[in-house]
Amino acid sequence: xxxxxxxxxxxxxxxxxxxxxxxxxxxxxxxxxxxxxxxxxxxxxxxxxxxxxxxxxxxxxxxxxxxxxxxxxxxxxxxxxxxxxxxxxxxxxxxxxxxxxxxxxxxxxxxxxxxxxxxxxxxxxxxxxxxxxxxxxxxxxxxxxxxxxxxxxxxxxxxxxxxxxxxxxxxxxxxxxxxxxxxxxxxxxxxxxxxxxxxxxxxxxxxxxxxxxxxxxxxx
Length: 220
Ligand SMILES: O=C(CO)[C@H](O)[C@H](O)COP(=O)(O)O
Ligand SMILES: [Co+2]
Description:
- GO terms for molecular function: D-ribulose-phosphate 3-epimerase activity; metal ion binding.
- The active site is at residues 33, 173.
- The protein is an alpha/beta fold.
- It has helices at residues 17-22, 47-56, 70-79, 95-104, 151-164, 181-187, 196-199, 204-219; strands at 4-7, 30-35, 61-66, 84-88, 108-113, 131-135, 169-173, 191-194.
- The chain has a single domain (4-219), classed as Aldolase class I (TIM Barrel, Alpha-Beta Barrel), CATH 3.20.20.70.
- The protein has an eight-stranded parallel β-sheet.
- Helix 3 runs parallel beside helix 4, helix 5 packs parallel to helix 6 (181-187) and helix 6 (181-187) runs parallel beside helix 8.
- The longest helix is centred in the last third of the chain and has 16 residues, at 204-219.
- The site of cobalt (II) ion has 6 residues, from strand 2.
């Protein structure tokens, strides 16, 4: 089954991260948003915290870097032992060189795109990438509403991955909820980040199961 649910700890209780990670043990990945207050107008957490998350997380760690100078910093997150490192296309000088370096360090390599950034330049480069992240909100904050106008980009990306025949995952991040997930899956996404929808639910495990079920129906 291709569908993966990746709760974002951006909406978790940062004072109790170990407990918050344990609550999402039935998820496929945990999504960790790293923000530097330069690439986006928000500041979250950095390498020392990510290293501890890797040690205690019950599921593989998926890092989303919203930082400038990804070429300098992204490899450090791979060295921290995360499963995947996604850097923004807008924050790197050399995406292929960086993706190759991340892979050589044992991490999956992902490229992320702001809603207004074109994905087409990456179509010929898909064999170099383990994941494409199409942002479905402007990066920086959880709890924003889904931007419907990003769906055609998700569909074009899925079509390009199918044409390339690569095993590149297609992640969406921002405004994923019970209301939006089926439409996003219909457009071709297979990895779904959900922060406020999961951590805002009374029963976190039930919410993860519900999101997975709604997306899986489309993929079945
Ligand atoms: O990268 C992000 C914000 O830049 C977060 O991963 C994303 O916003 C998740 O939050 P929500 O599901 O509440 O929209
Ligand atoms: Co994110």
